[in-house]
């Protein structure tokens, strides 16, 4: 039987095994998927030994996504730009390939699951860390009219914007310069939600029809989703759908079949609450 796994540390709370086992069942694929805690200094050798046995593919999570990027000999353009890899597998020539499905997962959740649009929209992205870098290329590929990256440390937002400036109208700034601007879609990729905090942005960034998207999710609305709802956003969406969609994209890369994510999203949502 083909083996798959997610490598991370810590990994106990990963929902990936449950998601991929559900995909395998619904598509009739014979495979196993497990969560494996890898010691920080054992990453490379654990990848090599997994993929030289029955292992066919890996998901990679914190803290190994950058290391996985460096280890891959072939990287997709979106992974190249993300500077991080969440999906590893070997191609027919045996080369170690790395992809990053986080951004396409989020874009698919917005467009397919929620019926949203990015094309032609004014997009604000909060944060300038790894999570944001991981989604920039797939967002820009949708041809938004502009993307503003705003971060607590403004210089990091400016640097990140420069990295993708060839892909569209992108600029970087601090939170304090958002006064007087408003957006159609606001994506929160800061780690503020982890502390139950909302980045200090003026509520004037919201118009009546603004959609808000938090890359994080929780059993009850995240601080950012709550803030969005309180200030009149048309929709506020958390990142549970992104989690399942990035898994669906990895599954498709490995198996060549696209699983239905809707049932799995509903199943996870029910289990959360
Ligand atoms: P990740 O991989 O989750 O993106 P990261 O690379 O450490 O983690 O980035 C964390 C992001 O959340 C950064 O943009 C950080 O802002 P700084 O660059 O100024 O550090 C942002 N962040 C973390 N805590 C925050 C808070 N309480 N309010 C606003 N932004 C916060």
TrEMBL record:
Q: Which domain of life is it from?
A: Bacteria
A GO molecular function held by the record: shikimate 3-dehydrogenase (NADP+) activity
State the active site.
65
InterPro entries given for it? Aminoacid_DH-like_N_sf, NAD(P)-bd_dom_sf, SDH_C, Shikimate_DH, Shikimate_DH-bd_N, Shikimate_DH_fam, Shikm_DH/Glu-tRNA_Rdtase
Q: Give every Quinate/shikimate 5-dehydrogenase/glutamyl-tRNA reductase domain span.
A: 114-165
| Reaction(s) catalysed by this chain's protein | shikimate + NADP(+) = 3-dehydroshikimate + NADPH + H(+)
Q: Name one Pfam family in it.
A: Shikimate_DH
Pathway the protein takes part in: Metabolic intermediate biosynthesis; chorismate biosynthesis; chorismate from D-erythrose 4-phosphate and phosphoenolpyruvate: step 4/7
Keyword list, A-Z: Amino-acid biosynthesis, Aromatic amino acid biosynthesis, NADP, Oxidoreductase
- Give the residues the record marks as binding NADP(+): 127-131, 151-156, 215, 239
Per the UniProt entry, the Enzyme Commission number(s) are 1.1.1.25
Quote the CDD domains the UniProt record gives: NAD_bind_Shikimate_DH
Residues in domain SDH C-terminal?
239-269
Residues in Shikimate dehydrogenase substrate binding N-terminal domain copies = 6-88
| Annotated binding of shikimate, by residue | 14-16, 61, 86, 102, 217, 246
Quaternary structure and interacting proteins, as annotated: Homodimer.
The family database entries (HAMAP family) matched by this protein are listed as: Shikimate_DH_AroE
* PANTHER family hit by this protein: BIFUNCTIONAL 3-DEHYDROQUINATE DEHYDRATASE_SHIKIMATE DEHYDROGENASE, CHLOROPLASTIC, SHIKIMATE DEHYDROGENASE
What is this protein's function per UniProt?
A: Involved in the biosynthesis of the chorismate, which leads to the biosynthesis of aromatic amino acids. Catalyzes the reversible NADPH linked reduction of 3-dehydroshikimate (DHSA) to yield shikimate (SA).
Family per UniProt? Belongs to the shikimate dehydrogenase family.
Write the protein's name: Shikimate dehydrogenase (NADP(+))
Q: Which organism is it from?
A: Neptuniibacter pectenicola
